[in-house]
């Protein structure tokens, strides 16, 4: 099936993650064929909308189609083409093109040097492999000669059994995974976590209480947070650094340099092998990059933040999420992080709706047992008046994209 594929061709993968899936992705990339990992749950409409702009040479929709693509061993000659979440507009593929031999080797070495991948590692996969971070950690493990364990869809009981049976050394997770694992272990008993040398989390803000529990639960020095996007990686932060700089997402990764514009827009200068374009969209690509005086280039994904004097980055949110109420800028992420500390809040999203007097009115959608009165009191103690939600709406779950991003525009439409 894969015999007719040539260097530079694109293959869309619309099947669940597995070890065969991982092998197929790595085999395609080693041959210079661009793997496009996609959520197999996409509707026919979504598939047509996404694939129409990517023009894949092959679309894999069944497990049987994966096996013929596997088997080639070698250094990846490209990054997988992941698709941006597309909370607004048509989703775009993040495309690195084919890498030179030196750049391909440098990309592998960078991940290995940062995360310490070795041939003794056992990587436990919690998230779907079509997501960029779990796929990157699994690939880094295999390229170092280690082993990957993929029990299937996330289930706390299955993951606990895998920890006891396989004694993993590394895992990537999001805060929601940690919340569910800790809740299960509180009820069913805690496993022996001493085999872990690396537990990295990202993808969503981590409530401070959960962060502290993570640090206490796993071996000293093993827990990390990193900040990145589909487009590229910005920072990495040991939890011990977070304790000294609460709220930070860390300093620039090795080989990167961060800067922040007066309006808060975060830029990241990267090596040549970390460059990308939005496939088929030169205007969007041009808007994401700017040249630097030293000849390098830096990119932005529109996130907003602050750098302290030691180079630690603190996130304020995304430019597209910024609310202006009564002439005051309000960053939803700041409000969400504050209200997440209330014990009755399981999940929260802050968004704006049109308001004749203020321009925008700050609202919050909440999952949890807290009442509006309790949250209002909590907010009054911790937030300046413009930042306090004027309305609370209670839901059983927040609307999200298939990659977990909250659909704030859908909340506003409600």
Itemize the secondary structure elements and their pairings.
Blueprint: E1 10-13, H1 19-30, E2 34-37, H2 44-54, E3 58-60, E4 94-95, H3 101-115, E5 122-125, H4 132-143, E6 147-149, H5 156-166, E7 170-173, H6 175-188, E8 198-201, H7 208-217, E9 223-228, E10 233-238, H8 239-244, E11 251-252, E12 257-260, E13 266-270, E14 277-278, H9 282-288, E15 289-291, E16 297-299, E17 303-307, E18 313-318, E19 323-325, E20 328-330, H10 332-339, E21 347-355, E22 359-367, H11 372-382, E23 391-394, H12 408-413
Parallel strand pairs: 1-2, 1-3, 5-6, 5-7, 7-8, 8-9, 22-23
Antiparallel strand pairs: 4-14, 9-10, 10-11, 12-13, 13-16, 15-16, 17-18, 19-20, 21-22
Helix pairs in contact: 5-6
Polypeptide structure, described:
- The protein has 414 residues and is an alpha/beta fold.
- It contains twelve helices and 23 strands.
- The protein folds into two domains: 10-315, ANL, N-terminal domain (Rossmann fold); 322-413, ANL, C-terminal domain (GMP Synthetase, Chain A, domain 3).
- 30% of the residues lie in helices and 24% in strands.
- The strands form seven sheets. It has a seven-stranded mixed β-sheet, sandwiched between helices. The chain has a four-stranded antiparallel β-sheet with strand order 12-13-16-15.
- The mean pLDDT is 92.
Reading off the top of the CATH hierarchy, the class of the largest domain is best stated as Alpha Beta
Helix tally equals: 12
The counted number of beta strands is: 23
Instruction: Sketch the major β-sheet.
Output: 7 strands, mixed
- Give the spatial strand order of the biggest sheet: 6-5-7-8-9-10-11
Q: Using the CA coordinates, give the radius of gyration.
A: 21 Å
Q: Beta-sheet strand percentage?
A: 15-25%
CATH superfamily of the largest domain: ANL, N-terminal domain
Task: Estimate nothing, just give the exact number of structural domains.
Answer: 2
Spans where pLDDT lies below 50 across 5 or more residues: none
Decide which structural class fits the backbone.
alpha/beta
Global outline: globular
| N- and C-termini, Cα separation | 47 Å
Known CATH architecture of the largest domain? 3-Layer(aba) Sandwich
> What level of helicity do the residues show?
25-40%
On the 0 to 100 scale, the average pLDDT is 92
Q: Indicate the multimeric state.
A: single chain
CATH topology of the largest domain: Rossmann fold
């Amino acid at each position: 099936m894969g015999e007719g594929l040539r260097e530079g061709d694109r293959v869309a993968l619309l099947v669940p993650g597995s070890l065969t899936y991982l092998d197929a992705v790595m085999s395609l990339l080693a041959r210079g064929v661009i793997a496009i990992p996609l959520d197999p749950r996409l509707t026919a409409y979504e598939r047509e909308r996404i694939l129409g702009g990517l023009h894949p040479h092959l679309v894999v929709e069944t497990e049987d189609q994966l096996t013929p693509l596997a088997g080639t061993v070698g250094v990846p000659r490209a990054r997988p083409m992941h698709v941006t979440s597309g909370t607004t507009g048509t989703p775009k593929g993040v495309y690195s093109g084919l890498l030179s031999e030196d750049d391909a080797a440098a990309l592998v070495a960078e991940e290995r040097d940062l995360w310490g991948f070795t041939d003794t590692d056992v990587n436990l996969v919690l998230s779907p492999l079509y997501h960029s971070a779990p796929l990157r950690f699994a690939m880094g493990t295999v390229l170092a000669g280690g082993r990957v364990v993929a029990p299937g869809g996330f289930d706390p009981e299955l993951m606990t059994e895998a920890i006891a049976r396989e004694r993993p050394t590394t895992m990537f997770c999001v805060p929601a995974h940690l919340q569910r694992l800790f809740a299960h272990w509180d009820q069913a008993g805690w496993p022996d976590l001493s085999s872990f040398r690396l537990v990295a989390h990202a993808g969503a803000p981590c409530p401070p209480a959960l962060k502290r529990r993570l640090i206490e639960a796993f071996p000293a020095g093993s827990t990390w947070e990193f900040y990145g996007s589909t487009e590229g990686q910005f920072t990495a932060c040991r939890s011990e650094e977070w304790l000294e700089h609460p709220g930070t997402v860390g300093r620039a990764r090795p080989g990167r340099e961060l800067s922040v514009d007066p309006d808060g827009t975060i830029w990241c200068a990267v090596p040549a092998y970390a460059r990308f374009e939005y496939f088929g969209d030169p205007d969007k690509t041009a808007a994401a990059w700017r040249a630097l005086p030293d000849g390098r280039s830096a990119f932005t994904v529109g996130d907003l933040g602050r750098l302290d004097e030691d180079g630690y980055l603190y996130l304020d949110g995304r430019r597209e999420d910024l609310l202006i109420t009564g002439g005051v800028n309000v960053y939803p992420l700041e409000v969400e992080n504050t209200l997440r500390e209330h014990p009755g809040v399981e999940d929260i999203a802050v968004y704006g709706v049109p308001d004749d007097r203020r321009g925008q009115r700050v609202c919050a959608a909440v999952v949890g047992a807290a009442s509006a009165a309790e949250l209002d009191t909590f907010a009054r103690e911790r937030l300046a008046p413009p930042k306090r939600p004027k309305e609370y709406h209670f839901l059983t779950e927040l609307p999200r994209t298939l990659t977990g991003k909250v659909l704030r525009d859908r909340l506003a439409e409600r």
